[in-house]
Fold:
Amino acid sequence: MYLILLSIFIPILMGLYLLVRKEYASRGRLLATTCAGLVLTGALAVASFTAAYGSSFTLFYLTKSLPIAFAVDEMSVLFSCLTVIVLLCAGLFSFEYMKHETKEKRYYGFYLIVFGVLNALCFAGNLVTFYLFFEMLTLTSMPLVLHNGSHEAIMASLKYLFFSMCGAYMALFGVFVVSHNSAVLTFSTGGILHAAAGSPSAGLLLAAAFAMLVGFGVKAGMFPLHAWLPTAHPVAPAPASAVLSAVIVKAGILAVVRTVYYIFGADFLRGTWVQTAWLILTLITVFMGSMLAYREPVLKKRLAYSTVSQLSYILFGLAVMGAEAVTGSLLHVLAHGLIKTALFLCAGAIIFTTGRTRVDELRGIGKEMPFTMWCYTIVSLGLIGIPPTGGFVSKWHLAIGSLQSAIPVFRWLGPVILLVSALLTAGYLLPLTIQGFLPGADYDYEHLKKREPSPLMTIPIAVLTILSVLIGLFPAQLTDWLTRLAARIL
Structure:
C-alpha cells in the first residue's frame, strides 16, 4: 500500500521542491532532477498496480463516514499505464522543446505535481477521494496552460478554470445526492445503488446522475461545455498540450466510468432519459468536433478540436452500455492517448524546428522533416481508424457494439456519425501529409534543408507511433482483457 502513496506524494513533493527552491546553477541539474522524478514516479506507479492489485486501504477519515481511500483494480491499471507512458514520453520531449521557453523550473514543478495527482485519480478508492483529486487536477494543471504568460494564455487558463469549476460543482451536487442515498461511496463493480432503482428518490438520483455526467464531461470536452479545450490546448507548450489532450481530459472519462459503472450501475441508468440524453450529447460532440477541426487552419487548435470529437467516441461507447461497445471505448482510451500524444509532439517538433503554426504554411514539410511526418502520417491513419492501427480495432468494436444494442435509432445512427466523423478526420489530418510530401512542381527544391529535431524529440514520437501500431497488429490479449473487464462492470 505504501507504493501507492509513494507514487502519489513523491512527485507532488518533488514538484513543490522545484517550485520553492532557488534557480539551479545549470539547466542540466534541473533536467536531471526532473528526469529522476519522472522515472521514479513511473516505476512506483507500475509497482503499485502489480504488487497491490486487488487491495485497498484507508489513509484517514474526513468525517466518520467520509474516508480518503485508495485501491487498485483493473480500471486503475488501464488508466495508470496510459498516464505513465504519456507523462514519460512528453517529459522526455520537453527536455529539448522547453529550451526556447522561459520559467522551466516552474513548468517541471507543476508537471511533476500533475503526475502525482493523476496517479491519485487512478488509484482513488471511493467517490469522495476521486472528487478531491479531480478538483486538485484542475488547479495544478492550470499553470501548464498559462505558462508563457501572454494575454491569450491567461484568458485561456481562466476559461479552463471557469468551465472546470462549473462542471465540478455540477458533479458535487450528484455526490451529495448519492451520499444521501447510500451508506458507502466505495467504487464497486456494478454500482452501489441497486436498491434505489424503484425507490421514491429514483427520479432525483437520475437527475444527479445526469448532472455528474455533464459535470465530469466538461473535463472530457463534451458538448455543451467543451469550449475551454480548443482554447487552452493551443496556448500551452506542445508537451503540455499532449498531456492535456491524452491524459488530463481522460480524467473526465475515468470520472464518467466510475460514476456510471461503479456508483450508479448500468442497470440503474439503462433505458432511462439519462441514457438517451447522454447519447444525444455524445453524437453531437463527435460530429461538431470533427467539423470544427476540418475548418480550423491552426495545427494545434485543429488537433484540439479533434480531441473534442475523439473523446466522445469513448463516451458514446460507454453510453451504449453494452459489452462490445464498452470494450471499444476502453481500447480507444489507450489508442487515442498514444495517438494524440504523438500528434501533439509532432506538431511541437514542427513548431520548434520551423516556427510555423498554420497548416497552410507547411507545404513541403515532409521533405524537410521526413521522419517526423511519417510518424505523423501513421498515427493519423490510426485516428481515422485505418488498419493495422489500434484506432481501427477500437472503432470496430464501437461500431459493432452499437449495432448489437437494442437502442432504437441510436443503434444505427451511432455508426453513421462515427463513419462521417472518420471521413472528416481524414479530411483534416491527411492534407498536411499530402502537401508535406507532394508539394508540387513549383516548390523550391533547390533550397530544401533537412532539419529533423534532436533524438530527445524524435524518440518519444517513434515510441508512441510504434505502440499505436502494435496494439492494432496484436490486439487479441488486450481486447480479451478489456472484454472481461467490460463484462464485470456491466
